[in-house]
């Protein structure tokens, strides 16, 4: 039981790059089989034709996260019901890169694509946290002066604010910015400082990114639930 819980804890760290939600939250993980030190993970996507590069990123991340468990010796990933299942499963399970797996259709590795979606996730998570702070009564000026230490020590963040802070700092670190206590908490995705005069326009821009990602998330969940005849998630589950 403990091994299974450890595997699912690692799978919760694997995100759909386009939606910024974990595969476990989305219900994409279909089956996990553990045989000694060998782990096989099967997952499914909303459509038969979901982009192979997105599918490859998720399959690769499943393999890499599960491989971090000290007792795991071998990981097999099985993407089901997809137009490129055979290629992706063979490539990821044998440690091949995307280019090695799709030499005739890829124009490069997936690093730039990963970075593009990390930036979108950064912007989306930051907007949610900023909106929460504004709702609590923080002024624009006070928000822009916050350091990481200030943010972590705010006494009235509430449970939602604590969760949003944790998610924001996680993606901030994933983009390569350190979370030292003295650092300014809110910066642009390229590391530039935010200024008070342009802050309202900045908020409007990042709101559009967040809404776009949420729309895609609702659309994909609907396709997935229809494809596999699943009950829709409750609003509470969707907002986790």
TrEMBL record:
Name of one Pfam family that matches: FeS_assembly_P
MIP18 family-like domain segment(s): 4-77
InterPro entries hit by this protein: FSCA_dom_sf (IPR034904), MIP18-like (IPR002744)
Protein name per UniProt: MIP18 family-like domain-containing protein
Protein's organism: Effusibacillus dendaii
